[in-house]
Every structure is written in structure tokens, then in C-alpha cells.
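Board work, copied verbatim: HNH nuclease domain-containing protein
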Amino acid sequence: MSLLHQLSLHCVFSAATQDSHAPADLIRSDSFNETVHDMETGSNSNELLVGYAKSLHEILAASDKDVFHFGGSQLKLHPVLREMLAHAYICGGVNGTRSTASIIVGCVRGGDPKSDATIDMLRNLAISWVSHFLFVFKSSHSRFTQLSSEPSETATPSFEDTDTRLKVSSIAGNHRTGFRDDILKRDGYQCIVTGFRDLAFLVAVAIFNREDLDQYLSTLTTWDILRNFAQLTPANVEDLGKLIDAPPNGFLLQHDALNGFDRFAWCLEKTEVENRYTVNIFDEYKHSIFGLTKGQVKVVEFEDHSDEFRSDEERSSPLKRSLGVPLPDPHYISIHAAIAGVLHMSGAGKFLDELLDKFDSNGVGSSAVPSWEDLCGGVQLADVRKGLAASGLGA
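↓ predict structure ↓
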């Protein structure tokens, strides 16, 4: 049975998309998910699915529905499909690529890849990925925990200084304070990119923050996109929550470098050597890594330095001596890298930055927009104000 014939048998939607339906409602429907599941678990090769998915984003590109106008900004949608497919392998491997391709292919209605209904579904999918996935990450700032307000004389502390000032925990990952202190010791009290050693300006970066996790899981749509794209395991929310507070979810950065990482202006890309990464700068002006320019090769290698900061008593204890601090999880780092790549290469990052700069929940310029629904509220309020001003009724 051909792939197109399989898709025609799954034509459950009407030929035209109903305007009353939000894009996310369409892609999370049972019938759409059934189609995607059959594609993903079927006998078609990855090459066939990926090739067909690529042809579909080209069809969207050639249509008059490719451009998404919102809040006075616009975004071409086919690059979102293209880059989500291209970057799925980075964090989800072969299965992530297959899952993403199946979702795109599942948009075909009635076996006709060029029908209006298919193009509507492709458009809805791209908008949903922007609003319920990329936006959620892009708008989530303040991941960091400030470690210390001590002046620069604490730059390279001895164990005694560190123990006095920070009350370092000897057990890895039990609490948020332990998370911070474990990362300090493991990374040798220095920024993993610049080598900077001033505690007043060093931040323990959580790749995924607990507060952000609540937002990721606020809708099943966001969670499903993340789970499929990155092939996250375990899927159990409670287990994922435990990982959030553990050292594998963080590393040490200089404060300004954090700003760029948090905004996906740069990322760490895996190399063939375990725990060795290269810095990839996407935005020359926002990466905020002192002394580093776009295109310059910078290697970051993680290793556990925690033993260097143990007391003599801890070193004499076989139990405490064995308590090394786990290195950052390559999967978490790769998820950040994949999202950064999609945001940059698709144009969605620039589009979302423009919106976040213009709107908050009250329609006032601000980057503090907690959800896509709040952003929509800001856009609608701005439109009302604009209409009132044009009619002479505005203040």
C-alpha cells in the first residue's frame, strides 16, 4: 500500500479547516494522533517519511498560506516545519526524526498533499509548534540562581573559604541549595566557557528550571511536542521533576554568558568525544560571552572537580569519597541546542523577540509574557486601542 493511499484512508477531517478551531485543537485531536501513530509505527522507511515531509513543507512554501501575520509581525511557516524536522535528530535521534516526519506527513488530508485542507493542516501544525513549543521556551527567562553577593576577593576560594561562605553540601542533588553547591564544586568554581572565577558573577544554570517545567506541562500539547521531538524518557512527570533538581541538569556560567544561553543566542553542540562540546554562537550581538566571537572555535569539556574541594575528613571516608557529582546530561544539553537551532534557522526566534518586545498581558511593551494566551490578549488590546485612536475615541 502506498503512503498516499494510507493517508487517504485516514481522512477523518473535513476538506476545509474550520475557522472556529484553534490550530492546536486540530493537531491534538484523536483522529490526527491516530494518523500520526500509524505513520510512526508503520513499515515505511525513515527515508520515505522524511522525504515526503520535506516535499510537504515545500508545498506550504509555494502556497498563499505560508505567512503568519500576528501582532504587526510576520513569519514564514514552512521554515518552522523544515527546521523542526532537521533538528529533531540532535535531541531525539532517529526516533525523534521519524516522529517529527510522521507528524508532518499526518497533515495530508484525503491522500492529496496539495489540497487546501492539507495546506491548512500544515499551517496549523507550524503555528502550533511556534505558539505551544518555541514560544514557551523563548519566553521563559530567569532560569538562574544567583550564587553569591560576595565581592571579587572570593574569586578562587579555598575549601575553608567555600565551606564558610556557602555551606557546601556533601550530598549531591537533594535540594535546590545542594544543586547549586554541587555544581560549584563539580565545575571548579569557574564558568565552563570563559573560565571566569568571580563568585559574585557566577550562576548555576538549570538547563530546565522547575518553574519552566510547570509551564511546559501546563498543556498536553506542549508536553506532547517536547516528548516526541526530544524522545524524552521517563515520560512520567514526577520522575522528570526529580531530574530537574539534580546536577545533570546544570552547569556554571558567568552571568552575562547566561543571558545569551537563556535566550538561545548560543548553545553547546556535542562532539564525538563524550562530555566534550563546542560553543555554537547564533547571534553575534546577544550571545554575551566575553572574548568570544561568532565562528571562533571554543571547546568545553566537563569533568568532575568536586574531589578537589573535599575536606580531609571527607577524603578519609570511603562513603563520602565515592560521592562524585554527575556531569551535565548530554540529552538535556542537546534539547537546548536543537531548540536554539530551530529558533535561529527558521526565523521564529526573531519573530518571537519582536512580539515579546512589543506586548505583555496589558498590551504594554515588555518581555514578561507568561503564556501565548496572554500574548494574544496583549495583541487584541493593542488592536482595540489602535482602532479607538483611529476613530478619535482614544485617550
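The radius of gyration is 23 Å.
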